[in-house]
């Protein structure tokens, strides 16, 4: 957490220096016009909100965040290792992208593994209500990540992206469990190969 705060302070200092330099090359009228544009306000608001959400994260040990670029808080990776349920001990990787209109727009999340899950399709798209119709700017990144983790503890067959997996969960929970275990080992289900998420 201390590292995040140090990086934030450095980014704020760089942004302030860039703003001073930009304003120094403009007439007072142009500087005032550019500082009052809505895009500048949105970017600043998004940066402040993302930084706030990151410093307030309170995640279980099953969720780990990494930043490929320590200066970029808008793009980061997530790993979830469920501690119970059908997907226990699987290692699931996600890519998270946040745009400059956050928190008006929800973050975009993509699963990087091909997995057998009712709410995640083979292309890594995720069906989670708080990322779509139930999104609200008051929701924090912590809420989103906990919600994503919950999909592995309680898959939802009533709002599926993978209808075959959802139907199996409803009709035959034992077979669904066998399918999940087989897929997590890098097996085939109905001629579709799934990633081995247990060995990483």
Automatic annotation (TrEMBL):
Pathway: Protein modification; protein neddylation. Residues 33-43 have a biased composition (Low complexity). Its EC number is 2.3.2.34. It holds the Pfam family UQ_con. Residues 1-43 are annotated as: Disordered. Residues 45-189 form the UBC core domain. Transmembrane segments: none annotated. It catalyses: [E1 NEDD8-activating enzyme]-S-[NEDD8 protein]-yl-L-cysteine + [E2 NEDD8-conjugating enzyme]-L-cysteine = [E1 NEDD8-activating enzyme]-L-cysteine + [E2 NEDD8-conjugating enzyme]-S-[NEDD8-protein]-yl-L-cysteine. It is an enzyme of class 2 (transferase). The active site is at 127 (glycyl thioester intermediate). Keywords: ATP-binding, Nucleotide-binding, Transferase, Ubl conjugation pathway. GO terms for molecular function: ATP binding; NEDD8 conjugating enzyme activity. Belongs to the ubiquitin-conjugating enzyme family. This is NEDD8-conjugating enzyme UBC12. The lineage of its organism: Eukaryota, Fungi, Dikarya, Ascomycota, Saccharomycotina.
